[in-house]
Amino acid sequence: MSSWVSRATESRNAQLITTAVVSGALVASTIFGFQKARRMYRVADLKASIPEVDAEHQSSRMTEYGAASNVFAPSKEDERSTALAARARKGDYDDDLILEQLARNRVFLTDDGLAKLRSAFVIVVGCGGVGSHATAALARSGCAKIRLIDFDQVTLSSLNRHAVATLADVGTSKVHTLRKRLEQITPWTHFECRNELFNEQSAAAQLADLNGQQPDFVIDAIDNIDSKVALLNYCWKNNLKVISSMGAGCKSDPTKIFIGDISASTDDPLSKSTRRKLRLLGVNDGIPVVFSTEKPGPGKAQLQPLAEEEFAKGNVGDLGVLADFRVRILPVLGTMPAIFGLAVANHVILSIAGYPNDYLPSKSRDKMYDGILGALQGAEERLARALFIQDAQGLKIPITQSDVGYLIEEVYSGRSIISGLSTRLVLSRWKKPSTNFIDERTPGQKASTIKMNDLVSMTKEEATKHEKQVLKGDKTLEEVYDAETIERVEKRMKEEARYERFR
After folding, report:
1. Residues 150, 125: contact at Cβ < 8 Å?
2. Distance from C-alpha of 271 to C-alpha of 358, rounded to nearest angstrom
């Protein structure tokens, strides 16, 4: 090896080649090193050119959802109103002027009632069409402590129903739009603005006390079902007074708007879905709601299906602002959210002030549910004796009064799935059990393993015939009922299966 190197270095050609290779490597390394140094200098210059993000920087005024919280510079009028409101909240405002502004409320509610309202703390969740009108009415009536919760911003389409928003507010947060405009009317009102999305995880913090004062009332003006259910469930379980606005979309008849218990609200898809999910969480009643009994009809507005081209774009859920957030524009007549919002505010004002507000009560159906439950237990005993065991006396069933109410009202809308009749209703098994449904594992106790999705709503006469021919007899469902009835039952059961995840 050493001899080969010696011979190579003695050759002039080999020396030239070696020199060229070494020189090339040296030049290449020099070029690469220069380029790397130049890149480093350029990156350093670029970083140095980026300004520091301070409180005045535009990016600091964006919410986590990409909405601008303060796009437009305040006008001189806004600045004067803000300064006046700041002084008024510190007490630099003549109380006689406040009482004069509230004079009509004062003589209506009395001094004691108005004093209660002025010291009350109310939370409004959802500051769109319904929430903005409710908030404006509360502030104008004297409520001096209001917390506003909404993650959304004012859009051009908001202006047909929002209580106070103007063109200058488009693109700004709804909570700050409300605060800014209402401070010009009632500068002494303390507004706490939370530009946040309400959900189950944040409920405890967002509905917390204000300086040690528990909320006197919570207003639900949310149009997202999951958030609405989370809010109402939290308030119910934590003994917070709450009133909920059901759907104002596709409604046009103000004479059909009522205030009543959520268990009595009907003819409203938003109300039905809310009631059903709340029942699954154990909340059956005790929540006042504003709802409309107006039924859809020919020529009336309705929610249209999403266009096929939108489905073609891929996952429809990706079109929403947030997960599970509606992606279709709901037809809304601008006057109806205002009426809903004012009805909500009216209830809150009267309740806080202690003014009589007796609404037409809904008829209690608990006695009917008890009757249906007893009839179901008797039917299970008869079926067990006919098919499997002789001694079925005292058979237990895993169905409660609450379950009966849920099935009758929410799943079957208070009607027979067979005929559509609404009188003398009972619950019956739909299919004949193929195996023994009696659980005897507990000594001295027999229990049926029947499940809620085994049951359908029928009239008493229909159930008697069904028991004799199908459950105890040899006839099949196809031999007793037409294809349309069987399809209707199966469709209803599939629909109910989608709600099983909430149990």
Report:
1. yes
2. 22
- Dump the DSSP string for 28-87: HHHHHHHHHHHHHHHHHHHHHHSPP--TTSGGGGB-TTS-BSS-SPPPHHHHHHHHHHHH
8 A C-beta contact, residue 141 and residue 102: yes
Residue indicated by tokens 């019956």: 428
| Strands 447-448 vs 438-439: parallel, antiparallel or unpaired | antiparallel
Burial group, residue 78, by CB count within 10 angstroms (0-12, 13-18, 19+): middle
pLDDT of residue 393: 83
Looking at domain 76-300+332-353, its CATH class is alpha beta
Burial of 397 (0-12, 13-18, 19+ CB in 10 A): middle
Q: What are phi and psi for residue 467, nearest 5 degrees?
A: -65, -45
CA distance 189 to 182: 8
The counts of H helices and E strands in the chain are: 17, 11
Residue 298 CB partners (closer than 8 Å, separation 6+): none
Are the CB atoms for 221 and 134 separated by under 8 Å?
A: yes
Q: Is 183 a residue whose pLDDT tops 70?
A: yes
> How high does pLDDT run on average in the chain?
83
Token digits of residue 25: 């490597």
Question: Which comes out higher in pLDDT, residue 50 or 481?
Answer: 481
Find how far residue 404's CA is from the centre of its chain. 25
Residue whose pair of structure tokens reads 């509610």 in the numeric block: 109
Q: SS3 breakdown of the chain: % helix, strand, coil, rounded to 5?
A: 50, 10, 40
The pLDDT, as a whole number, for residue 441 is 84
| 277 close to 499: Cβ distance less than 8 angstroms | yes
CA distances from 211 to 119, 121, 208, 402, 427 (A): 13, 10, 9, 38, 51
Q: How far apart are the first and last CA of the chain?
A: 84
At residue 495, the pLDDT reads 80
Half-sphere exposure at residue 362, Cβ-oriented, CA atoms within 13 angstroms? 17
Cβ atoms 417, 486 nearer than 8 A: no
pLDDT score of 375 more than 80: yes
Cβ atoms of 284 and 236 closer than 8 Å: no
Place of tokens 């535009």: 58
Q: Give CA–CA dist 354/334, Å, rounded.
A: 31
Domain ranges of the chain: 76-300+332-353, 366-502
